[in-house]
C-alpha cells in the first residue's frame, strides 16, 4: 500500500540546515540588532530568534524575486464580454519602508477587459508580488495597476487600497482608528459612470 507523503513545506518556511552566506549575514545582523536593544541573544528564548527573523523577513520580502508576468502566465483567457469585473476585499500584508512595521488591509480591483480576462486567483497573487516588499501604500497601488495594465491591456483598470499602518498605531501619532485609502483609476474606469459603478461595488458590503 502506498503512503501519501505529507505536503512539502514551502522552501521559505524550512529550517535551512546549511544557510547561504547572505542568510547567515542576515541572521548575524538580527543577532546584533537584538544585542543592541540590550537583550541577551544567548538566553534560551532568543537563541533561535535571529534564524527565525531572517527566515520570516525573507518571506515578507519574497516579492522582489517575483514578477507579475510569470505569476499570471497560463491564466489569461480570451474575453467573453466587455463589462466591468470587480474583485474586492483581497487581503494583503506589507512592510512600510520607513519603519519596517506592517501595514495591512484590503485591495479592490476593477477592470473592463480588452481582449483578455485573468484567472481570478491571480489578482491576489499579483497583489502579493508587490505587497511582499518594503513599500509605501501609494506605490503598492500604482504597481498593482501598472502590472494589470501591462498583462491584460484592459480598456480600464481601477485599484483601491485600504490599509492600517502599525507605524501610525503602535508608535508615532498612535492613531489606532485611522486607515488610509489610495486609488488609481485609469482608462474607462476614470469615466464617471464606470467609476461610480466600481466605487459602489467596493463600498457595498
Ligand atoms: N505617504 C505614505 N506615508 C507613509 C506610509 N507609511 C508610513 N508613512 C509615513 O512616513 C512618514 C515618515 O516621516 P518621518 O518624519 O521621516 O518619520 P517619523 O519621525 O518616524 O514620523 P512619525 O511617524 O510622525 O513619528 C510618516 O509620516 C509616516 O506616517 C505610506 O505608505 N505612505
Ligand atoms: Zn511606517
Automatic annotation (TrEMBL):
InterPro entries: GTP-CH-I_C/QueF, GTP-CH-I_N, GTP_CycHdrlase_I, GTP_CycHdrlase_I_CS, GTP_CycHdrlase_I_dom. It comes from the Bacteria. Its EC number is 3.5.4.16. One of its GO terms (molecular function) is zinc ion binding. GO terms for biological process: one-carbon metabolic process; tetrahydrobiopterin biosynthetic process; tetrahydrofolate biosynthetic process. Residues 27-202 form the GTP cyclohydrolase I domain. Coiled coil: none annotated. The keyword GTP-binding applies. It holds the Pfam family GTP_cyclohydroI. GO terms for cellular component: cytoplasm. Keywords: GTP-binding, Hydrolase, Metal-binding, Nucleotide-binding, One-carbon metabolism, Zinc. It catalyses: GTP + H2O = 7,8-dihydroneopterin 3'-triphosphate + formate + H(+). Homopolymer. This is GTP cyclohydrolase 1. It comes from Truepera radiovictrix (strain DSM 17093 / CIP 108686 / LMG 22925 / RQ-24).
Amino acid at each position: 500500500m502506498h503512503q501519501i507523503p505529507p505536503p512539502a513545506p514551502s522552501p521559505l518556511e524550512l529550517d535551512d540546515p546549511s544557510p547561504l552566506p547572505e542568510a547567515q549575514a542576515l541572521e548575524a545582523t538580527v543577532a546584533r540588532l537584538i544585542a543592541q536593544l540590550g537583550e541577551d541573544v544567548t538566553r534560551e528564548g532568543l537563541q533561535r530568534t535571529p534564524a527565525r527573523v531572517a527566515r520570516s523577513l525573507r518571506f515578507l520580502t519574497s516579492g522582489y524575486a517575483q514578477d507579475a508576468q510569470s505569476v499570471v502566465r497560463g491564466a489569461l483567457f480570451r474575453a467573453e464580454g466587455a463589462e466591468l469585473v470587480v474583485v474586492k476585499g483581497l487581503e494583503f500584508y506589507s512592510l512600510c519602508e520607513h519603519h519596517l512595521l506592517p501595514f495591512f488591509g484590503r485591495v479592490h480591483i476593477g477592470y473592463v477587459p480588452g481582449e483578455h480576462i485573468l484567472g481570478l486567483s491571480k489578482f491576489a497573487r499579483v497583489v502579493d508580488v508587490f505587497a511582499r516588499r518594503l513599500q509605501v501604500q501609494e506605490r503598492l497601488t500604482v504597481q498593482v495597476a501598472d502590472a494589470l495594465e501591462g498583462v491584460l491591456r484592459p480598456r480600464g483598470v481601477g485599484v483601491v487600497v485600504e490599509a492600517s499602518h502599525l507605524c501610525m498605531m503602535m508608535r508615532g501619532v498612535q492613531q489606532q482608528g485611522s486607515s488610509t485609502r489610495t486609488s488609481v483609476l485609469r482608462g474607462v474606469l476614470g469615466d464617471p459612470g464606470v467609476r461610480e459603478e466600481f466605487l459602489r461595488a467596493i463600498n457595498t458590503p
